[in-house]
Amino acid sequence: MKFFKQLWLLIWKNLSLRRRQLLRNAVELLWPLAIFLILAQVRKRRPAEHKPQVFFKPRALPSAGILPFLQSFICDYNNPTTPYQYGLPDYANTSFYKLAEDLQPILQNRSNLDALSRIQDDYNALMRSLNELQVFNISRLTPDATISSILTNTSTVRDFI
Questions:
Q1: Which of 10, 45, 65, 115 is 20 to 30 Å from 151 by CA-CA measure?
Q2: Residues near 68 by beta carbon (within 8 Å), at least 6 away in sequence
Q3: What are phi and psi of 35, to 5 degrees?
Q4: Which pLDDT score, from 0 to 100, does residue 91 have?
Q5: Which ranges in 79-118 belong to alpha helices (H)?
Q6: Phi then psi for 136, rounded to 5 degrees?
């Protein structure tokens, strides 16, 4: 009940302050109405035109080399309004294309994918085992650290492995 009383007092205060500023109130009410009427008149005088779909061909990035990059702009000066019929183009000298080409046989092999999915589990198991042996010093883990600098007792790890 107290909330509604406070809300009513706030609304009453707002209205009493607004009664003193008639010009400002008129502008606040008429300005959005005027903009809406102008937009409605523009739309009425000039109805929307139907335009056909436009499809843009994929373009080579600068990493593909300067020649394919420029050719993708020059050879397609007049943009056709039909979809690109040949799929995505191959830019064989890009680093991503070479990486995808190298990874394709690996990723198509199901046993490799299963092994990749088990990497996280194997890593977690190794970390649990090292923590149990208390041979792993996490404070020494830096970007230039070597395995022997991280391990506190290398002979225990050798015996474990």
A1: 115
A2: 60, 91, 93
A3: -65, -40
A4: 63
A5: 95-108, 110-117
A6: -110, 125
